[in-house]
Design a protein that fits this description.
With 337 residues, this protein is of the alpha/beta class. The chain contains twelve helices and 14 strands. The chain has a seven-stranded mixed beta sheet, sandwiched between helices. The N and C termini lie far apart (45 Å).
Length: 337
C-alpha cells in the first residue's frame, strides 16, 4: 500500500473527488498555479483546469460566501482558508449562512461545502498563524467539524466531507503535514517517527464522520485527544508506563459519544488533551459529557491539559503546547487521586 504524508493524502483526496464528480471545485488564496502555501493543491489546476481549481482574492468572506452560493446552485466547493487564523472575516458567512441554509429553506437548499484550513502551531508563526479555533465551530448547529491525526484518516475523512450534503469545517494540524513532532523540537523523533508516513490506499474510500478510533488500548485511564495531541498522549503513556487508552476523536461534531462512554466506564478515569486555550476550549464540553454520562463510574475528577490562557506566545511556542511531560503528570495525578 502506498505510504504518504498527510499533505499528500489531502491532495490525493481532492484529486480523487474532482475526478469522480465534476461538481467538485477547489479554490482559495494561492491554491491554483502556486498549489497553496503548504502545496496541498499542487498540480490540481494543471490537471483539471482553471475553472475547477483557481486562485481567489484575499477575501475569506468572499471565498466562503461565494462557495455557499455555488453550493446552493448545485456545485460542491472545497475551499481553503490559508490559515485558521484568517477565518474570522468568513465566520459570519459560515455561521449565519452555511450552517443555516438547510434549515432556513426547509430543506429546499443544502450547503455541501468544505472549508479546509491549517490549524495549530508548530511553524513559529506566532499569534496570526498558529491558532486552534475548533471550539468556535463546534458550538454552531448545522456544521460538522473534523480534525484528522494521520494521512490515512485525512484522505478518507476529506472525501467523506466533500461528499457530505452539509457544511464541513476541516481542520488540518500543520505539525502533522509532513510528519508529527515532539514537544521540544521541529522534526520527527522516536517514538513518533514511525507515524511520519501513513499507509494510504489509492483511489476512493471514506471514513464515516462521527466515528472515533482507539489508538492505544488500556485499562487504567482514558485519554481523549485529536490531531497532534493524539501523538502527545501516546508518548506520555509510553514514557510514564501507564496503561492508558488513547482515543482519537477524529470528528468533533458529530461526536462519537458511545466510544468515549464505553472507554471511561471501563477505566474509571479520564484526561482530556487539546492544543487550544484551556478556558472554553472543546475539552470543557468533553469533561461535561463524561461527567454526565459516566459519573457513577468515575474514580477521580476528569483532568484537562491544554494551551495557556494567553494570546499565542510566539517565543514560547513549544512551552505553550501540551507535551508528553505535562500530559504524563496529569496521568499520574489522575491515577493517584
Amino acid at each position: 500500500m502506498p505510504r504518504r504524508t498527510m499533505i499528500e493524502a489531502i491532495r490525493d483526496a481532492m484529486d480523487v473527488s474532482m475526478g469522480r464528480d465534476e461538481r467538485v471545485i477547489v479554490y482559495g488564496e494561492d491554491v491554483g498555479f502556486f498549489g497553496g502555501v503548504f502545496r496541498a493543491t499542487q498540480g490540481l489546476q494543471a490537471k483539471y483546469g482553471k475553472s475547477r481549481c483557481f486562485d481567489a482574492p484575499i477575501s475569506e468572506s468572499g471565498i466562503v460566501g461565494s462557495a455557499i452560493g455555488m453550493a446552493a446552485y448545485g456545485l460542491r466547493p472545497c475551499v481553503e482558508v490559508q490559515f485558521a487564523d484568517y477565518v474570522y472575516p468568513a465566520y459570519d458567512q459560515i455561521v449565519s449562512e452555511a450552517a443555516r441554509l438547510r434549515y432556513r429553506s426547509n430543506g429546499d437548499f443544502t450547503c455541501p461545502i468544505v472549508v479546509r484550513m491549517p490549524t495549530g502551531g508548530g511553524i513559529f508563526g506566532g499569534q496570526t498563524h498558529s491558532q486552534s479555533p475548533e471550539a468556535l465551530f463546534t458550538h454552531v448547529s448545522g456544521l460538522k467539524v473534523i480534525v484528522p491525526s494521520n494521512p490515512h484518516d485525512a484522505k478518507g475523512l476529506l472525501i467523506a466531507a466533500i461528499e457530505d450534503p452539509d457544511p464541513v469545517i476541516f481542520l488540518e494540524p500543520k505539525r502533522l503535514y509532513n510528519g508529527p513532532f515532539d514537544g521540544h523540537h521541529d522534526k520527527p523523533v522516536t517514538p513518533w517517527s514511525k507515524h511520519e508516513l501513513g499507509e494510504v490506499p489509492d483511489g476512493h474510500y471514506t471514513i464515516p464522520l462521527g466515528k472515533a478510533a482507539i489508538r492505544r488500548q488500556g485499562s487504567a485511564v482514558t485519554v481523549l485527544a485529536y490531531g497532534t495531541m493524539v501523538y502527545v498522549a501516546q508518548a506520555a503513556a509510553e514514557e510514564t508506563g501507564i496503561d492508558a487508552e488513547v482515543i482519537d476523536l477524529r470528528t468533533l461534531l458529530p461526536l462519537d459519544l458511545d466510544t468515549i462512554v464505553a472507554s471511561v466506564k471501563k477505566t474509571g478515569r479520564c484526561v482530556v488533551v487539546h492544543e487550544a486555550t484551556l478556558t472554553s476550549g472543546f475539552g470543557a464540553e468533553l469533561v461535561s459529557l463524561v461527567q454526565e454520562n459516566c459519573f457513577y463510574h468515575l474514580e477521580a475528577p476528569v483532568a484537562r491539559v491544554a494551551g495557556w490562557d494567553t494570546p499565542y506566545p510566539h517565543a514560547q511556542e513549544w512551552d505553550y503546547f501540551p507535551g508528553p511531560a505535562r500530559v504524563g503528570r496529569a496521568l499520574v495525578e489522575t491515577l493517584e487521586a
